[in-house]
Structure formats: C-alpha cells, structure tokens
Amino acid sequence: MAQRINEFGQPISEDVEGWVSCPRPPLTPLLGRYAHIVPLDAEAHLDDLYSAVSTDTGKMWTYLFNGPYTQKADFADYLKTSQTSTDPLFYAILDAQSGKALGYASFLRIDPAMGVIEVGNIAMSPLLQKTRIATEAIYLMMAHAFDDLGYRRFEWKCDNLNGPSKKAARRFGFAYDGVFPQAVIYKGRNRDTAWFSIIDKDWPTIQAGYQAWLDPENFDADGVQKTALVTRTIS
Predict the structure, then answer these.
(1) For the segment 211-226, what is each residue's pLDDT rounded down to a tens digit?
(2) Dist. CA 37–CA 39, nearest whole Å
(3) Measuring CA to CA, which residue among 216, 212, 215, 218 is closest to residue 230?
(4) CATH assignment of the domain containing 160
(5) What is the mean pLDDT of the chain?
C-alpha cells in the first residue's frame, strides 16, 4: 500500500474507521476448560492463595512490586487492597477441576478510549507454573480483551532482567517492542522495562495457536503436551 501523504506533504497513517471507545472489563468470570478466572475475593481466596504462594521459596516475588509474604495477615491486607482496586483490576486464577485459587493476575493501564490494555501483576505460584491452567488463564484474559471488549492492543511488561517473563511473553504470542530505560523504581531498585504487545490484526493467528495447544487431544494420558504452543511465526 502506498504511503498516505497529507496536504502538507507529510506521511500519515491509515484512518481507524468507525472507532468507538471500548468498555472497561467487567468483573465477570472467564471460564475455560482448565482455568477459571474470577474476580478476586480477598476473604474467599485467602486460604488457597496463601497456601499456594507459600510453596515458593521467595523466587516468584523478585520481580513483582509486592511480597514476599511471611505473615498471612500481611498477605490478607494486600488482597483486600487489591480487591477494591479498579486499575489494576484483579482476578484470581482457579484450577477449574478443584476450584482452588493458585495465583492471580490483573488488567491494568486500561485505556478504553485508545483500545489499549495490559495484563500484569501476574503471580503464578509454583502450583500454577508451567501448567495448562496458567497458559489458558492468559489466553482467557487475552480473548476477553480482543473478542468480547474489542481492544486493539494487549500489552505485557516486565523488568528487562526478568528472563523467564520475557520468555513467557514470546511463548504467549507477544511481539517485543523494546526497552524503556529507568522506567520504574521498585523495591529500591531501578527497572528498565521491557515492552511486549499483541495487536488485533495478529490475534486470529495467535488465537488459533492457543486453541490447537489447549485441545485435550494435544496431551497424553499423563498430561504431557504432544506439540508445543506456537502462537506466531514472525515477531
């Protein structure tokens, strides 16, 4: 397609025909085959979540803004504060089979007017890491943003030193956008923030990759994947 030029001889981008502001995510459950994403309930989810995060040695908190928690009361206070927040908007990640809460995540930096939304504050306990539940949890939030709410851009951000998070972002289908140096100070440390995103035009291909991977036929009797998750061929 030829580059558009305005009346001043300047290059301009394409129009976004018929664009209207997106709705904010409602506090409604997102139910999958392996994972249920439900609004965080500080009281109802406390015992399960504290039990789940207590299986960690402290490693899972290094790159998060909060934690670790050695006292259940402190964790309870954090959940109470999180439950009342509207941005970030927190959800518990439940094992669909047992109903137990094993972690949590949020929608944040919600910009309905621009159609941009981020997934973050992701706390995957060791009981959730590298499971079908964890992968489907991200997929459910992504599908909700694109298919149900009509967002144009879905973001993932992390400390540029957080190698596992950057690897997860690529596996989940996010394209690498670059690094914002000295973007944040947390826990007394500098954070150069790595940005990743998925945009709506790439979503159908990425969604097909998730659906193929999440199909029960893709797992053997022991729950081992037969084919790896492939969400994009270019980035």
Answers:
(1) 999 999 999 999 999 9
(2) 7
(3) 212
(4) 3.40.630.30
(5) 96
pLDDT-based confidence at 233, cuts 50/70/90? low
Q: CA-CA distance, 234 to 165, in Å (whole number)?
A: 19
| Contact (Cβ atoms closer than 8 angstroms) between residue 52 and residue 127 | yes
* Whether residue 39 has a cis bond before it, omega within 30° of 0: no
Number of domains in the chain: 1
Is residue 15 in a domain? Answer: no
User: Which pair of tokens denotes residue 148?
Assistant: 């149900």
Instruction: With respect to residue 42, please indicate whether it lies within any of the assigned structural domains.
Output: yes
- 3-state SS, 85-98, equals CCCCEEEEEEECCC
pLDDT band at residue 234, thresholds of 50, 70 and 90? low
State the Cα–Cα distance between residues 136 and 44, nearest whole angstrom: 22
In-domain check, residue 230: no
Which has the closest alpha carbon to 183: 160, 165, 164? 160
d(CA 24, CA 176) in angstroms, rounded, equals 25
**Is residue 227, in this structure, part of any structural domain at all?**
no
Range of the domain at 73: 25-218
